[in-house]
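User: Hi! I have a protein structure encoded as tokens and I'd like to know what sequence might fold into it. I'm fairly new to this, so please keep things simple.
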């Protein structure tokens, strides 16, 4: 029974992660009418930028996080200005193909720069899991779950 509860909790956390990604995709499609196939690569770029700011530049965690957000937003803005804005009156098929190209280009650029080995971001949060009865959850995963289940505007 304890294993079932642990698997259910792990499934909720993974579902919360997917929900946060889905909210971003829905927001972009709803506002810009663009199916952003490169959405995951923008998340990945932000993570790599945070890694670079933390591990390579030695910045404070929250400063590095802010810098990664600003740099990621700048890359997204550049993509919107140079690729999507000129295609505003084109069919959705055209913009989808362009975003597939952005996805492939970003993915290969990230592999070229960072390699295919996973990186670890040093963070100031506790790493010991919170044990709640028969289940345990890492504090960062609990944070994701809380964000995904947070209040929604109407």
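Assistant: Happy to help. Inverse folding works backwards from shape to sequence: for each of the 154 positions I chose a residue that suits the local structure. Here it is:
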């Amino acid at each position: 029974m304890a294993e079932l509860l642990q698997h259910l909790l792990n499934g909720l956390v993974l579902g919360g992660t997917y929900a946060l990604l889905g909210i971003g995709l829905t927001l972009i499609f709803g506002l810009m009418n663009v199916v952003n196939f490169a959405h995951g690569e923008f998340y990945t770029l932000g993570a790599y930028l945070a890694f670079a700011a933390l591990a390579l530049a030695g910045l404070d965690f929250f400063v590095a996080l802010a810098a990664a957000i600003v740099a990621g937003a700048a890359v997204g803005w550049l993509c919107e200005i140079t690729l999507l804005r000129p295609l505003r009156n084109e069919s959705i098929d055209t913009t989808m193909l362009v975003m597939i190209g952005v996805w492939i280009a970003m993915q290969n650029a990230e592999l070229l720069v960072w390699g295919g080995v996973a990186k670890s971001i040093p963070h100031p949060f506790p790493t010991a899991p919170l044990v709640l009865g028969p289940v345990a959850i890492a504090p960062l995963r609990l944070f994701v779950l809380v964000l995904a289940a947070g209040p929604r505007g109407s």
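A useful reference point when you look it over: The helical segments are 2-32, 39-56, 61-84, 92-114, 139-149. Feel free to ask if any position seems puzzling.
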